[in-house]
């Protein structure tokens, strides 16, 4: 993933995929940063919202998971995935 990001630094799916890998190795800070970057590059990629919530839930930080979803809903009330996650 790192090589792909070096070659295509504006490819949101690569940041999303690397974020998922970071969650799998419990590096939640890096995962969160990658999910944020993926969302910044492509706000229509609603999977980033869901992944952020799942990462927080895996850390038993449900308040942070809910706050993240509510923040995204405040930005875009039409985000079906954020509405589902809430």
What is this entry, summarized?
With 86 residues, the protein is mainly α. It has helices at residues 2-7, 12-24, 28-41, 47-58, 62-75, 80-85.
Topology (SSEs and partners):
Layout lengths: L1 H6 L4 H13 L3 H14 L5 H12 L3 H14 L4 H6 L1
Helix pairs in contact: 2-3, 2-4, 3-4, 4-5
Give the strand tally: 0
Task: From the 3D structure, determine the CATH topology.
Answer: Serine Threonine Protein Phosphatase 5, Tetratricopeptide repeat
CATH level-4 homologous superfamily: Tetratricopeptide repeat domain
Whole-angstrom Rg:
12 Å
Flag low-confidence runs.
80-86
Binned, the helix content reads over 70%
Q: Helix/strand/pairing class, anyone?
A: mainly alpha
CATH class: Mainly Alpha
Tell me the span between the first and last alpha carbons. Answer: 30 Å
Query: What count of domains describes the coordinates?
Result: 1
- Biggest β-sheet: count, sense, barrel? none
Mean pLDDT, all residues: 76
In terms of DSSP E residues, the strand content is: under 5%
What is the count of helical runs? 6
Order of helices and strands: HHHHHH
